[in-house]
Predict the structure of DNA glycosylase.
Amino acid sequence: MVADGLDILFCGINPSLMTAATGHHFARPGNRFWPVLHLSGFTPRLMKPAEQRELLSYGLGITNVVARATARADELSAEEYVEGGRLLAEKVTRLRPRWLAVVGVTAYRAAFGDRTAQVGPQERTFGNTRVWVLPNPSGLNAHWTAATMAEEFARLRDAAPAWRRVTAGRRW
């Protein structure tokens, strides 16, 4: 679910089996992406995965580093991450979002060979697209609560002045 010129393109690691079955990103029960997106102020209400197309109206999109669906991200090979990173870089260069938000620091490190990357803004850019690494919202990521993830997502929201301009007139 992407389009040209998005304000923020969120990028998951790879589709879960539930996402592959439903065609909806972050569809697995227990994944906290949708609640965190709302808690951080990106959406006016808690959206369901089946409503993902509505994100485009907010200047937001979703893609993945690796296209292959798995039960767990640790089933992916190093080669899949590297190839996924190459393809993602091409996609971002073509679509030109203002921000690429990679959801999962481990996936970002593996896809782009940046072993020291931390959650937050990155030095790397793709053309004029800036990069931000966010915590992985999977229910398996116990290091982050929904509230602490929402704080990090909100840091990105606040750093994206174009997004604030687009949504400033909306009453939520």
